Amino acid sequence: MATLAAVSLVVSALAFVHVYAQDQPASWSEPQKPVRIFGNTWYVGTRGLSAILITSPTGAVLIDAAVREAADGIASNITSVGVRLEDVKLIVNSHAHNDHAGAIAELQRRTGATVAALPWSAEALKSGKKYAGDPQFESPTTPPERVAKVKTIRDGEVLRAGGVEITAHKTAGHTPGSTTWTWRSCEEGRCVDIVYADSLTAVSADKFRFTDNKTYPHVIDDFTRGYAFLRSASCDILVTPHPEASDFWPRIAKRDGGERDALIDRTQCARYADRADAQLQKRLATERAK
After folding, report:
1. Looking at the domain 4-289, which fold is it?
2. Residues 141, 206: contact at Cβ < 8 Å?
3. Are strands 88-92 and 60-63 parallel, antiparallel or unpaired?
4. CA triplet 113, 252, 27: central angle to 5 degrees?
5. Do β-strands 52-54 and 41-43 pair in parallel, antiparallel, or remain unpaired?
6. Three-class secondary structure assignment of 176-214
7. pLDDT confidence tier of residue 290, bands split at 50, 70 and 90
8. Which DSSP category does 39 fall into?
9. CA 243, CA 190: separation in Å to the nearest integer?
């Protein structure tokens, strides 16, 4: 029997496919009150799209910004947890699609924060257009608003903003610039390693083939490296750009119901990679059978 997490991964992947032909899911812009994940780490996104705020007394970091119309809600959530917008010093991204980077440009204007990304994502964000190499390049999707200035970073680079320190890990495949972020948060003398793992799903435009692809020839190798990283990462708490892909809301409900460690599962990152790998292998088998 399929686990809830496995079903959620499939539903999350299908959401990408069906959004091409119809309006985006309502949950992507549905307001959501901020939720403390652990210590100085907060969920400040919409109900259906993650945005993560990591705070310190001297500055904060925002990871992802959902769709364009989510800017007001994310800004309100940031201030409601006691962080002034001008204290957001750094904005980073999982991958440069509108559902995760749509409001980055607007939030950069409001905060004055530096936006940083791996090379492919940096160029995509600066272009304001769909960017070559993306498996979804030929899909009728809306690109994120152009970001005026983006700092290019490297795989494995440690970024610091105020008292926050996070590390960028290239986990490409879903896009050539897909990035997983890791950091440590503490509360009441207890510290955990948090992994914000980017989407690992092999989703594409109809004509894109992951096998023998000319526009993104290393896509399978990139996926494989990303899976290997997630399987070996120090991972106490997993959060994903689409919260259902990591059972975020059910786990929050359990935690708020009294199960203190409901968010903590040191096997979750590896299982997340395993599910995505199985989905990729199924996709490759389908392509090779044609």
Report:
1. Metallo-beta-lactamase; Chain A (3.60.15)
2. no
3. parallel
4. 65
5. antiparallel
6. CCCEEEEEEEEECCEEEEEEECCCCCCCCCCCCCCCCCC
7. confident
8. T
9. 24
Angstrom distance (rounded) from CA 5 to CA 248: 10
Name the one residue in this structure whose structure tokens are 């020839």.
217
State percent of the chain over pLDDT 90. Answer: 87
pLDDT at 142: 84
Task: Pull the structure tokens for residue 283.
Answer: 């996709």
3-state SS of 144-162 is CCCCCCCEECCCCCEEEEC
Which letter does DSSP use for residue 158 in this model? E
**Between the CA of residue 87 and those of 102, 163, 212, what are the distances in Å?**
21, 11, 46
Model confidence at 12: pLDDT above 80: no
Q: What is the DSSP letter of 240?
A: -
In terms of pTM, does the model score above 0.70?
Answer: yes
**Amino acid symbol at 145:** E
Domain limits of the chain? 4-289
Bridge-based pairing state of the strands 237-239 and 190-196: parallel
Report yes or no: 201 and 279 within 8 Å, Cβ to Cβ.
yes
> What is the spatial distance between Cα 73 and Cα 92, in angstroms, rounded to a whole number?
18
CA angle 76, 81, 86 (to 5 degrees): 65
Q: Residue 274 belongs to what H/E stretch? A: helix 268-289
